[in-house]
Amino acid sequence: MPPSPPRPHPVARADTARAVGQPHSPLIRELLASGRQSFSFEFMPPKTEAEEQQLWRAIRQLEPLRPTFVSVTYGAGGSTRDRTVRVTGRIAEETTLTPVGHLTAVNHSVAELRQVVGSYAAVGVRNVLALRGDPPGDPNAAWIPHPDGLSFAADLVRLIRSAGDFCVGVAAFPEKHPGAPDAETDARYFLAKCRAGADFAITNMFFYPEDYLRLRDRVAAQGGDVPIIPGIMPITSLRVIERAIELGGCRVPTQLWEQLQAVADDRSAVREIGVDYAAGMCERLLSEGVPGLHFYTLNWSRATREIYQRLGLGDRGLGGRGHPEGRPERVRSGSSAPITA
Fold first, then answer.
1. Exposure of 186 by Cβ count < 10 A (0-12 exposed, 13-18 middle, 19+ buried)?
2. How far apart are CA 320 and CA 177, in angstroms?
3. Can you tell me whether residue 107 is helix, strand or coil?
4. 3-class SS at 31?
5. 1-54 residue pLDDT tens
6. 72 in helix, strand or coil?
7. Helix (H) or strand (E) holding 78
8. Hey, is 292 helix, strand or coil?
9. What residues act catalytically?
10. pLDDT band for position 76 (50/70/90)?
11. DSSP class of residue 124?
12. Which residues contact 329 (CB under 8 A, 6 or more apart)?
């Protein structure tokens, strides 16, 4: 008698993950619904043992700031899928932080995407950032979907929401997505993701606060009310800004670029200028009533902690899941750890 065919691997649902004793992680939409501003950090999965140590050093140094959530990126084409899920699950299990796992549609079939969603559920992660993703190798190349995959981020949002009690975030683009013909069309693409079930959005990095504010106005004019959190990248080296231009084509203020070029050989001076500019941006955005700030840390903590100290953000965040009823204790601005990394 021939052997029985293997059973298909079921997707672990977020609600069943809780039933088997996984950590209970708050949903970002519930935290944002409280009306208080959200402050969050983004990390990258490590590729080496040294990078792993640096990542966890940054996590432990930023944890005392009690961010609303932290997110872990997903490499081009799913190249860091297993590390992303592992790091995100470890954050859920070993820290007081609320983790958000990234997921991109690039180079993945629908079956593979469902497997990743199940992997997140199995480690107690209920918040996922759904991204179409950039083509591997050349982010500006033409988009080619997987033959058994998805073509649009809105489809990925629907897939995640169908898998259980997940909260789903999406990307937003202050200067419009490079593939969109104009800003109004880009806003319509964004609203399609919201209608598919997105609960919140995080923008890619930008350097003109006005670009974010115009995006917010365009979305509101078309009936959108999903919170859009601005993404902030403090410049700590010229390579950071060069990479930003390469990946997203974002505009860099001429005066800022000239200031950085004038001290290009002085790493400390470059970082000081970058942190000053980012802090000024944050102050302007907060005065405009943004729902929060999302800091791209590049797995280092010093620049983010300095901005927290300058703006007194330590008392303003929503706090992590370790706080009763989601309300943080009031803390001093900044971290108790020395700013050395």
1. buried
2. 31
3. coil
4. helix
5. 444 333 333 444 555 444 444 445 789 999 999 888 999 999 998 888 899 999
6. strand
7. none
8. strand
9. 42
10. low
11. T
12. 319, 323
28 SS3 class: helix
pLDDT of residue 101: 94
CB 181 within 8 A of CB 140: no
Write out the two tokens for 146.
Answer: 């997987």
Residue 341 identity (one-letter amino acid): A
Looking at the DSSP bridge assignments, the partners of residue 42 are 71, 296
Residues 248-296 have pLDDT tens digits of: 668 899 999 999 999 999 999 999 999 999 999 999 999 999 999 999 9
CA distance 332 to 198: 34
DSSP string, 183-206: HHHHHHHHHHHHHTT--EEEEEE-
CA 239 to chain CA mean position, Å? 21
**What pTM does this model have?**
0.84
The string of pLDDT tens digits covering residues 196-230 is 999 999 999 999 999 999 999 999 999 999 999 99
- Residue with tokens 């708050």, as numbered in its chain: 26
Residues in the chain: 341
Q: Rounded CA gap, 321 and 96, in Å?
A: 6
Cα–Cα distance between 209 and 297 in angstroms, integer? 19
Q: What's the Cα-to-Cα distance from 12 to each of 29, 160, 264, rounded to whole Å?
A: 21, 11, 50
Detail the DSSP E strand segments found in 25-166: 38-43, 69-72, 99-104, 127-131
8 Å CB contact between 310 and 276: no
